[in-house]
Design brief:
Blueprint: E1 4-10, H1 14-28, E2 33-38, H2 45-52, E3 57-60, H3 66-75, E4 82-86, E5 90-92, H4 98-106, E6 110-119, E7 134-137, E8 142-144, E9 147-148, E10 151-152, E11 163-164, E12 172-176, H5 177-182, H6 195-205, E13 209-220, H7 231-248, H8 251-272, H9 278-294, H10 296-301, H11 303-306, E14 314-315, H12 319-325
Parallel strand pairs: 1-2, 1-4, 2-3, 6-13, 7-14
Antiparallel strand pairs: 4-12, 5-13, 6-12, 7-8, 9-10, 11-13
Length: about 350
């Protein structure tokens, strides 16, 4: 019988554990073991886990290794056939595990999968971090079925078909353990944000398939660690996006796409100056580029391991162009024949 482990990474999330762990336990206990990995919290997280949730397995790390490093260290210690990496601010629903585990059993080439991600605050709307499955355009900008940039759709059943996607969200990331370890896990240089996109690209480079299974639904609060307005998040997103491209783009596309992204990032940095507290985000973009240049040799060396390739489900148009100029703010409005296959 296949073993499934639901693994929740926690850092000073005592209130979130109290609120959301009960649903995870109630709807997972018969199909999976439940682990909480603690990134050296300084709040009462460990005390709460031991006193209020004795059925949960606890793994304590010696310091905060971030999302990527925390999971990499934890999953080396957890034996299972399937890992379910679940954010601490996610409410799960009855039967959320079964549809995805069935997909793994039916499709031996399925490496990772995600459920539908809805907003916990607005239960009928998709949530930013994953919605109904992730994609990127040819310039590396990520978007989702149900969410393009900051435009979120309501879930009216329009994406109720299982679909092969480019990336599965780290908020509820189902992955075969053998695939996770064979691909080297998350890149710890990312620390947080876009590490799941990088891992999914590396998985697809090796021929594994990524899927969204709409029969499984969870509700995500979002912004539990860094909210959308955080300059730190701006820094991580801009830096990690450039690292993502450097590691995974095939050689014939690498230089022209990186050059164009440099130009577009410069425009974005200037645009921040016209927003409230925009100077903080302007400097975050500049800092992101400086860190990228500093680490360019390290990430270039990782290309051999990543096996760079132009893989399926990359949107071969500019999502910036479609969204801002063509006013296509829904996934269903995109010309689907431009998705590579």
């Amino acid at each position: 019988m296949k073993v499934t482990a639901v693994v929740i990474l926690n850092w000073n999330g005592a209130a979130l554990l109290r609120r959301f762990l009960p649903s995870v336990i109630e709807h997972s206990r018969h199909e999976a073991t439940i682990w909480v990995v603690d990134n050296a919290s300084t709040d009462e997280s460990i005390k709460i886990l031991k006193n209020e949730f004795p059925e949960v397995q606890i793994l304590q790390l010696d310091k905060n290794y971030g999302f990527a490093g925390g999971y990499n260290r934890a999953l080396k210690e957890i034996s299972a056939d399937y890992y379910v990496l679940l954010n601490s601010d996610v409410e799960v629903t009855p039967g959320w595990l079964s549809p995805i585990l069935r997909q793994f059993e039916k499709q031996p080439n399925l490496g990772a999968c995600q459920p539908i991600i809805r907003s916990w605050q607005h239960k009928e709307a998709f949530e930013y971090a994953g919605a109904a499955g992730g994609f990127i355009d040819y310039l590396g900008y990520p978007f989702c079925r149900g969410r393009i940039f900051d435009t979120l759709e309501f879930d009216e059943g329009q994406y109720n078909t299982p679909l092969e996607i480019f990336w599965a969200t780290g908020a509820a990331f189902f992955v075969r353990s053998e695939v996770y370890h064979a691909c080297g896990g998350f890149d710890e240089e990312f620390f947080a944000h876009m590490e799941e996109i990088d891992l999914c690209w590396r998985m697809k480079n090796r021929g594994w398939k990524i899927l969204c299974e709409p029969k499984s639904i969870v509700y995500h609060v979002g912004g539990g660690t860094l909210n959308q307005l955080s300059p730190r998040k701006t820094f991580l997103n801009f830096r990690n996006n450039l690292n993502l491209l450097l590691k995974n783009l095939p050689g014939n596309r690498l230089i022209p796409i990186l050059f164009l992204r440099m130009v577009l990032d410069g425009i974005a940095a200037l645009a921040f100056l016209f927003q409230s507290n925009g100077h903080l985000h302007f400097w975050a973009v500049l800092k992101a580029h400086l860190h990228f240049y500093k680490g360019i040799i390290i990430h270039f060396k990782k290309r051999k391991e990543a096996k760079p390739n132009w893989v399926s489900q990359i949107y071969q148009r500019s999502i910036l162009w479609d969204y801002h100029l063509k006013k296509r703010n829904k996934f269903s409005q995109l010309p689907l024949h431009y998705f590579s296959s």
